[in-house]
Structures are given as structure tokens and as C-alpha cells.
Amino acid sequence: MSNLDTHPAVRECGGRSDVTANPVRDLLTGRNVPLGESTVVRRLLPNLGRRMIGAWCFVDHYGPDDIVDEPGMQVPPHPHTGLQTVSWLREGQVLHNDSLGSRQVLTPGTLGLMTSGAGIAHSEQSPKDHAPMLHGAQLWVALPETDRHTAPSWDFHDDLPVDSGSGVTTHIILGEFAGLRSPGRTFTPLVGAQLDLAAGTSTTLPMEPDFEYAALAISGRVDVDGVPVEPGSLLYLGTGRDRLPVAAEHDGSIMLLGGEPFEEKIVMWWNFIGRTGDEIKEFRSDWETGKRFPAVTGYDGPALRAPSLPDLPLKARGRQR
Fold it and tell me: Which interval of the chain is the signal sequence (predicted)?
């Protein structure tokens, strides 16, 4: 998914200096951002109060949207560097096309995992004949220095592990959780899981004390460590936990995101992740001049133009503003 902001901020994130060594309960609200012709997303990361959760550095939640008489998601071809995109649907379909020639329709419960490495471009759109509702999340994972120049790749998984018990159905999206591991390729220790809680559920989840975590509300209301979390919000939980109590009076779903705090400082602007401002400028120039990023076929329309870079120099701000 693209950041379609015409004046995207330059952010330097990463490092462990601002990672709390104790559990916290910081409830963060997202901001509504238009995405293409008819989709509005709730951007929850980066946020005014938090820039990363482990290697997770970008989180958009959208829907549920009634798109019966709408084109649905329409995101033209755009570039990425230095990250993985994680596409996760709860309702509907999204058609992925990329510069490797990959073409795949994503459906609920399947994982679309794109590793940009040194550079890739893709488009995302609702198919012409699409389901009436669209609901899902798009996330980015920052790649470490050792792997950020790797060859780009696209992976599709429709065999993700699912666990049910104690009123919770868990889909393991990335990483390992509760003894189950996703087949999705990762480059740093992390976890992403969707947890569906049946009405009346009250249970405790196992956690890794060295991970920092957050809970993203997908639907309904779920009490996470005693804090009510509803769609449009993300609860940052910090580190130092070996268990997490969750409860739901009615049916509800959260996405649990976590990982070891990301050691490196990164620069994130528009759809690029690099290490310096000069590197970001090079990525932008390559996109505008047709270098580095092969064309995306299968999308009826022009590619996105890169926004203008800001005039102000970059400033390191760490993981929190």
C-alpha cells in the first residue's frame, strides 16, 4: 500500500534509546487518510506518540467499507525500498500486481508478503467484480541493514497456522506465537497475529518479555490489559511482559504486533526506507527517471508521481516524537 500523502513527513526512527523497559498502556488514535478514489484508512503508525513497534513501522487499518457501488481500493503503481509490505484482509479481495510480474488476488486469511529489498513497484486494487465489503490492514516491516539490499520478492501464503481454544481463534500472520509459526519470511524477530475473541471470553496470552508489543483493534471492543481498545485505536504495551490478559464482552478482534526493538536508525519518507537523506533523494530520483524500478503491468492508469522532498534537513528524532 502506498502513502498517498502529497506532503509526507521525513521521519528518522529506530534505536533502543526510547524503548521502555517496562510494560505500559499507551492508547494511540489514528488519523483518517484518503487512499485512492474511494478508500479512507486509519493511519495508526507512525503516530505522534510512536514510530515503531519492533520492526513494524507503518500500519493502516481500513473498513469495513460498503463498496457495492464503488470501485473500492484503487492504488496506482508506486515504489518501495528497504521494507516488507504485509497485506491482510478480513473481508473482500485485493488484486496485487508488481514489477516482478506477480499477479495475485488476496482474500481473507491469506498473506501477501512483498519484500522490496533494493527496489520494487506494485499496484493494489479491488477486482472489477468484487465483494460488497472491504476490510483489512496494510503494514510495513523495516528491513535490517544486512538484508535491505536483497533481491525483491513476492510471496503468497494460503496455509497460515490457525489455533482455537479458550474462546480465541488465532491466525498466525508472521513470526511465531503460542508455539505456531507462520511460513512468511522474516528478517528480524517479530510477530503478527489476528486474534478473534468470542463474546464472554477472558483469557491470558503468552508473551516474550524481550519484545515490545501493541494491540490494533480490528472489530468490536476488546479489553487489553484492562484497557478498552476499539477500531481506530492502537494500544502500545511496551516490553517486559510474559503474559497479557484480554477479554471481550461481545465478539471482537485485535491484531497483535510485536518484535525485538529495532536496533538501527532508519529514514522513512513517502514509500521509501533508507538510512540517509541522500539515499532517499536517490530513490526518489530513480523512480521519477525510470531507474531501479521496472514497470508494473496490469493496472489501467498512470503510476504515482513522487511528492517533492521537503526543504528542511533531516533531524534524528528516535522512536518517539
Answer: none
Does the pTM surpass 0.90? The reply is: yes
pLDDT digits 0-9 by tens, 120-156: 999 999 999 999 999 999 999 999 999 999 999 999 9
Q: Are 168 and 132 within 8 A, CB to CB?
A: no
Q: How many C-beta neighbours within 10 Å does residue 22 have? A: 8
Which single residue is written with the C-alpha cell 494460503? 158
Instruction: Say if residue 7 carries a ligand binding annotation.
Output: no
Side-chain-side CA neighbours of residue 68 (13 Å): 1
- Is the dihedral angle over the CA atoms 300, 301, 302, 307 positive or is it negative? negative
Sorted by sequence, the CB contacts under 8 Å of residue 258 that are 6+ apart come out as 53, 54, 190, 191, 192, 207, 208, 211, 212, 213, 214
The answer to whether the annotation marks 70 as part of a ligand binding site is no
Ligand-binding site membership of 96 (annotated): no
How many C-beta atoms lie closer than 10 Å to residue 115's C-beta?
23
Q: Which CATH architecture has domain 11-265?
A: Sandwich (2.60)
Q: What is the pLDDT of residues 7-49, one digit of tens each?
A: 566 666 665 555 667 899 999 999 998 876 668 899 999 998 7
Q: Is 124 annotated as a binding residue?
A: yes
